[in-house]
Amino acid sequence: MNQKLNINNKHYKKADDLESLNMFKGQLYETIVTTQSNEHVKNAAPIGVICKDSNHVVIHLDNCVHTHLNIMENGELIVNITNNPLIFTYSTLGELEDEYFDEFNGFPMIKDSLGFFKAHVIKTIEKKRENDYNDGIGNVVTCEVEDIYISDNNEIVPLNRAMNAVIESLVYYCRFDHKYKDKQDMIWTHMKELNRVCQKVGNESEKESMKLILDKMRETYEYLD
Length: 225
Ligand SMILES: Cc1cc2nc3c(=O)[nH]c(=O)nc-3n(C[C@H](O)[C@H](O)[C@H](O)COP(=O)(O)O)c2cc1C
Known about the structure:
CATH superfamily of the largest domain: Electron Transport, Fmn-binding Protein, Chain A
CATH topology of the largest domain: Pnp Oxidase, Chain A
Number of strands: 10
Shape: globular
Structural class: alpha+beta
CATH architecture of the largest domain: Roll
Distance between the termini: 57 Å
Strand content: 35-45%
Bound molecules: flavin mononucleotide
Strand order of the largest sheet: 3-4-5-10-9-6
Number of helices: 5
């Protein structure tokens, strides 16, 4: 069935499986997960999503606060596929503002997502992981995929190093104080190199994202050069 959906003038078509989003079994993809509290306070955060099969994903919640709480509270989420570096950056360094959100059946999603799917939790396991947030207490959550939608606008994106540099830098930022606590000098040197690459080969959003990340690092850790 070829169901169509129009959100914010962007056209989406319904799909049956994760392969339609180019998401394949066993692989982990960097996405933006949107959730809401029972009081309808919305939230967005970058989360790695592992494809278990065509209609199930697994996520590890151990390094986030609101996403973790919301998912434990009501078990609902939307996984958004986007290549917008500023959405990754804003939602990591702070809270994503309202203007970046849209709604799918009353649930928050990211405006202009290239594709997205709604999912609900079917299994939760407590897992202790070394070097993680919250004293290493996390949850491994299996979700069943419900509605999948793909944007009609399939752009060709040639390889470029800048987006990877932004994503790596954001992950370093999130783990600087725990997983990388003993290697902060090395990680900071690497982040500055990623910034150099990004400023050379990136677009304006990627360059702006890297600038925001490095500024935030210098503000948070005053001893950094
Ligand atoms: C690329 C990327 C992937 C991430 N993946 C995860 C993840 O899989 N699980 C997790 O708990 N945190 C992950 N994080 C960290 C959270 O996104 C980050 O701590 C965020 O600020 C949490 O927001 P929240 O407290 O509003 O949920 C990731 C961060 C980045 C930049």
